[in-house]
Every structure is written in structure tokens, then in C-alpha cells.
Amino acid sequence: MVSDDLPDGTGVYLLKDSAGKILYVGKARSIRDRVQSHRQSERDRMLMGQVTAVDYILTDTEHEALLLESNLIKRNRPRYNVRLKDDKRYPYIELTNERFPILRVTRRPEDQNQRYYGPFTDVGAARRTLKLVRRAFPLRSCKHLPKRPCLDYQTHLCSAPCVGKIGNEQYDRLVQGADLFLSGERHSMAHLLIDEMRRQMVEAAGDLEYERAAKIRDEIKSLERTLEKQEIMTPEGEDADIIAISSRNDLACIEIFFLREGKLVGADHFYMEGSSDEPLAPFIKQYYSSTTPPKKVQIQKDLPEDVDNWLSDLGATISVNSRGRLMGMAYKNASSLLRQEELNSKKGIDELGKYLSIPSPSRIEGIDISNFGGGEAVGSVVVFNDGMPSKGEYRRFKMEMEGPDDVGMIADVVRRRYSKTEAPDLILLDGGRGQLNGARFALEELGVNAPIIALAKKEDDIFLPDMPLQHMRPDSPALLLLKHVRDEAHRFAINYHRKLRSQRGKKSWLDETPGIGQKRKRALLLRFGSLDNVKKASVDELQDVLHNRAVVKELIEHIRSS
């Protein structure tokens, strides 16, 4: 992905290698500009030489990006976040461990005996938060205990434990309150702070200090906004998946935010065909069939009752939240990714056409063979229209050839496919020079003239007819499109191959009996419980199940012969 394809917005970006492993996590006011600066930096040359993909998560504020960046680094531990650590240290609020603990701002949260809260986006934000907390919990900030009350005591920002204005137990309660508030117990503690600030605002107005009263009023509004945003950003202790969908034309993008213990720890996205919310229900069933859902799954709109019941059986509940803050962020990301995918597809098609010296290939078909162990070999054909999969047009073939002959099988699929179907703008083979030559020969036999290339998995080698081996740059939109088609053809072939192998493993002598299909087989096993009991059943018992004397006769003869 080139930097120009990235959004000019605030958020977190993840630099990944060819295996999908996260190398570096960063935050930025402009993701596009920040990634571009990595590419131009001499210091980052080693990192960027390994980067083949850039993912991102857009946020509404820089503070949210900072929190998300911190969560992602702790969860994934990317190697280059250690190597390329910035000299800049983010500010924290520190609560010391001493007789009368101090509340202060620090950039070095290194003492394990102290408590730290943060990080904050800048020192100004940390100091404003510290001042707001000290209005309700007036802890001292001085390094040494003075012999007389200081100015902080006069302005109600310190309780003056140095001269006995407050007892040990009372001060300990203030420490506990500040700790709860800064640790995240905002919902239970916020009213104490806001009530105290309102009391001070009324007092200032009563003393005709209108300028001070207005300042406190603005601080209250700012605090209420901060509390509201952070409370929604990190619901206390909640495990939830936030799922949003954005769709346009025949493509939909589904974005999932992962909240664990109240923290946004990651996101993922998927593309599906569909111009409405219809893909969401089958997506949820497919997605949670292979992963354990959290206790709560939030979506934008109601889903069919059967999906709701299905998730309930897995221990999760669906809730509808179309206007929540995180849902809005998830939808913003889905919409941005959808625009990016459409842009990348168009760029890939245009670049591929120029590279191959053909008109832009709006329809591409990918072909692959799955032939593990020489048995149940299958072929697959996948179709991409305008750079996106058209799964309703996928086709698969059982191969009748024996032995590991991928070249012959590729040629066979080409013959069977294009003897009845018009050739696309481009045919892509998963393989090398041998597969390319075999497929070309099959096309010549059919009298079909169509552009054809092969893309090998190792090093992404590109094979063109009558030309030397070719390569594209790793972030080329054309290469990314070709890899998408190739990998999809491989996935489709592998899944069909596994299905046939599974079916072969489940077959028994009963499946080979004339007149016994799946329905009659199921009825016999339900009645008798096992294949051995079917063998032991009498003619009358078999007749009660099958209701067909000819089939019963065939079954008995097959049992005797086997």
C-alpha cells in the first residue's frame, strides 16, 4: 500500500510484514503523512524494507489514538517499537508512596513503589487533569513538608497535612478517592469532583468573582465531556465486539472493534458481497463458528431471531447500538476501508493493464489445483469483477487424472472451463512456467485467444508467455490484486479438496449399497444405532424402515457379499 492511499486522519497505524506480523505500531494526527515520513527516514530504512502492508484504525481524538496505541503495543509487543522508541516520553500522573502521598506530573514512570496514571497526550493535558482532581481531593504537591500552609491551601488545592489541618485518616480517604478516580472509577467518583467544582463556582459568584466563576464553569463542561468520552471508550471491565458495516454498490466492509476488560485492544475488517445489511447475519454466524464470542456483541441494527438465539447458545448476547461512540468509530473505519478497497482495485486493474500491455482487465479468472497425497485432486476457478470477488460465479472440478500431475490437471481445467464459457480479460494460474505452458496449449486446442499469466507463491514470481521471469514491487496495487486472486483460487480449491477427503473418510459399505442414499442411510442408523446392528437386523425390521422390498433385497445381498 502506498502512503497516498492512506487516510489523512487521526488514528493508529500498524506496519506489517509479508506474513501479516505486526512490526510497528504508531499513532498520528495524519496517518498518511506519518507513514510517508517513515518511508523517507534514513533511520527507518530497515523497518520499511520489511513492510508489505499498512493497516490502520481511525479515532476521533489524538488521546484515543494514544490509548489505543498503548493497548496494541502491550498486546502485540512489536519488535520495532523497542528499536525505534522515540526520545519523547509521554507524561503520567504519579501518586507517591509516603506518609502524605504527593500527586504530581512525571515523564519517568519507573519506580515500582509509586502509582502511575496515563499516559497523557501532552503535559498540558496531564496538568489540567491533575488540577481538576485536586479540587475534589486536595492532596499536596510540594516535595518537602513546609512549616506553614502554602498558597495551594489558600486556593483549596491542598489540605495542608504539613501543619495538621487534616488528620491521617481523612488524608487517606482523599488518597483513596483520587486513586479510584484516576484508575478509571470515574462513574462512581465523578459526581464528587463536579459537585465540589459547582460549589466553588457558586461561592465565587457570591463573592462577585465572576471571571473565576466562569472559568470553573468551563472546567466543569470540559470535565463532563472528557468523562463522557472516556467512559464510552473504556466501559468498565466489559468484554465486547463492536461490529459495523458500510456498503456501496455490490461490496460491503465489516469492521470489528475488540474490547477486552473495557479496553479497545484491536480491530479487524472483512469484505463481503452485498449492497445492504444482508451480509451481516451470515457473517456473524460464519465468524463466530470459528472463534469464541465475548459476552456482548454490539451491532447497528436488529438481526433475525435465529442469529440472536444462535449467539445466545454460545454464551453471548446481541445488543443494538447505532449511535454509540465506538460504533461510530467502527463505521467510520469501515467506510474508509471500503473507499480504499475500491480505489486500490481500480489502481490495480489499471496498473495491471499497462504492465501487460492489454486493456484494463475488469474480469479476471484465477485457476488452481489441490492435489495433496495424489488423491481427491480438484481444480478451482474463481472470478473477480472490477477487482472484487464474484463468489456466485466460482466453479470447481473433480479431477479424473491419477498421480501428482499439476500441469496436466491445469490444462484439463482450462479445457473444461473455456470449451463452454467465454474467456475473461485475463487468466491467472497459481503456478510456474510448466502450468503456464500447459494452459496455453489447452487454449490453443480450443482456439481461444486470451491473455494468460502465472504467479508462483515463492517470491511472487510472475511468468509471462515467451518472456523472462518478472517481478513487481511488493506494494504494487497490480501485484496485490494478482495475489488476492491467486490466494482466493488456492483457498477455494483447498476447501473443496478437504471436503472430498472428509466425505471419503466417512464412507462405509452402506454408502456403496445400490438404492441406499443419504436419507435411507440416516433412517437405518437412527433405527439400529450402528452399522453392525444393521447387519444383524431381520428382513422384517429392514422392511419397516425402508418400505421397499427390492431395496431390502439389495441390502441383504450386499451384506452377505461383504
Topology:
Blueprint: E1 11-16, E2 22-28, H1 31-40, H2 45-48, E3 53-58, H3 62-76, H4 80-83, E4 92-95, E5 103-106, E6 115-117, H5 123-136, H6 151-154, H7 168-183, H8 186-206, H9 210-233, E7 240-248, E8 251-260, E9 263-273, H10 280-287, E10 296-299, H11 305-313, E11 317-320, H12 325-356, E12 363-370, E13 378-385, E14 388-389, E15 395-398, H13 406-418, E16 426-430, H14 433-446, E17 452-455, E18 462-463, H15 477-506, H16 518-528, H17 531-536, H18 539-546, H19 549-561
Parallel strand pairs: 7-10, 10-11, 12-16, 16-17
Antiparallel strand pairs: 1-2, 1-3, 4-5, 4-6, 7-8, 8-9, 12-13, 13-14, 13-15, 17-18
Helix pairs in contact: 5-8, 7-8, 8-9, 12-15, 13-14, 18-19
Q: Gist?
A:
The chain is α+β, with helices and mostly antiparallel strands and 562 residues long. It is built from 19 helices and 18 strands.
